[in-house]
Known about the structure:
Layout: H1 2-18, H2 20-47, H3 52-148, H4 154-184, E1 193-196, H5 197-214, E2 218-223, E3 230-233, H6 235-251, E4 257-264, E5 269-275, H7 309-319, E6 323-328, E7 334-341, E8 343-344, E9 360-364, H8 368-380, E10 384-388, H9 391-400, E11 405-409, H10 417-429, E12 439-443, H11 450-455, E13 460-463, H12 468-479, H13 489-499, H14 506-516, H15 518-548, H16 554-569, H17 573-583, H18 590-616
Parallel strand pairs: 2-4, 9-10, 9-11, 11-12, 12-13
Antiparallel strand pairs: 1-3, 3-8, 4-5, 5-7, 6-7
Helix pairs in contact: 2-3, 3-4, 3-8, 4-7, 5-6, 6-7, 14-15, 15-16, 15-18, 16-17, 17-18
Amino acid sequence: xxxxxxxxxxxxxxxxxxxxxxxxxxxxxxxxxxxxxxxxxxxxxxxxxxxxxxxxxxxxxxxxxxxxxxxxxxxxxxxxxxxxxxxxxxxxxxxxxxxxxxxxxxxxxxxxxxxxxxxxxxxxxxxxxxxxxxxxxxxxxxxxxxxxxxxxxxxxxxxxxxxxxxxxxxxxxxxxxxxxxxxxxxxxxxxxxxxxxxxxxxxxxxxxxxxxxxxxxxxxxxxxxxxxxxxxxxxxxxxxxxxxxxxxxxxxxxxxxxxxxxxxxxxxxxxxxxxxxxxxxxxxxxxxxxxxxxxxxxxxxxxxxxxxxxxxxxxxxxxxxxxxxxxxxxxxxxxxxxxxxxxxxxxxxxxxxxxxxxxxxxxxxxxxxxxxxxxxxxxxxxxxxxxxxxxxxxxxxxxxxxxxxxxxxxxxxxxxxxxxxxxxxxxxxxxxxxxxxxxxxxxxxxxxxxxxxxxxxxxxxxxxxxxxxxxxxxxxxxxxxxxxxxxxxxxxxxxxxxxxxxxxxxxxxxxxxxxxxxxxxxxxxxxxxxxxxxxxxxxxxxxxxxxxxxxxxxxxxxxxxxxxxxxxxxxxxxxxxxxxxxxxxxxxxxxxxxxxxxxxxxxxxxxxxxxxxxxxxxx
Length: 619
């Protein structure tokens, strides 16, 4: 078959080389000779003689008709060969294009991988910076707070306030930089809690006055007399925005007044207007003032500002269901107006009044200044504190003493805080430890969400520098679950909501409670508690089978799916989220993380049910 195709192709090439005219003439000659010989042979064979008149007639007919037949045959061959060549060329071009596309896709894939790696490297860099810079900064803030509570002269108080204000200002700048990464990753979020609004404004006025006085300016605070005492808001984020706006006002004002005016513009809406008597902003620049990295074009202040503070502030304002706008004119100063939504709330429970009087706490921290700050706060509450500066020391002390609470730094010289938590949990689950106290992460890293710490074995997280308010709230959550102060019944539900926000789906629970009633929800919770041991047995059995034969992933997925659905129906958010991860066996990291998720389900489900019951008991 291959020889026939080869011969046919050579014949076609030969025809094309001769051309239509020459091939037609050659064809006529060949056909004429062939027709003459055939006619003579047939005549001789059939009738025994050759009739030359018939031969001449046939030859003449052939000479007349053959050129047309041969010409059109040659034309057809040329057309077919031309089509074949064009088709071959198209196929070759297509192959080339496919090859080019594959190369381009490969380059794009490499570029995307490089981009993803760069993004991971950037996050790792920001995480390192967060830890390395925040650690000394938090030490300055924490120690200055402690010293401000001691007996000092007025001059010493002023010096310390300046140190504290400078450290806080640097912290705000650092927060702006870190927020750039969070904005890119769409991870920036709010941490709303009950805030004493008047105390908050007083703190703003204190640091604003210090900032203004350093530039020989005057700061004034005006607010309406009927503002609520307590608001549900993220005071750190609000402080970050106001610091940016006041800092800019001071920076671009040579003389005059910086004024902050606070008004209530709606039932849950508040406006903060920061005005100055500075150089102002040209009208042509107002549209770009909130763009990232944009800086006002001023000969007087060519290198002032990084161009990120206003952009980050506007993003946070939008998260607060508000906005940030500006009015300005050159030479007449500027007015930046921040609008936010904040719900007025009742005074929160004074957690410190209901804390246990005695606790034995193991503080695991390797930075001396952080040890001093945290230990001072804990001892001020009357608690006994042991310190471990490495992971190995922490494990040795834990096995030698009985502790009520572990405060664990994430980055230690020999191992991470997560490794300590996972080690202790493994020992506890293997019945080598009789009791495992709450494991609370201490971190200066603001890049990660709280949920990430919970998935790594921690029970909760506290930010550094350690805040007395956040610490007492955390202690209240873990050590006063059974105490309902008689004077604080109206606040108990609020405090539990805040403490259990990461554990319970409060929005769903409020809706279900209103629809079904508290009694039905308690019955559903009891049913879940009754069924969950069987679900866990099924899940762990499926995992045992999977360990012997990795093909049996689906059994784990099915068991996890049951737990996910059951937990979701009663508002157990944390259990639902962990089970959802365990359910998706097709995910890349499933095999690596499934054991951790199963341990978390075993560890958390009963605790979370108890917290759900406590929440329902507040009705």
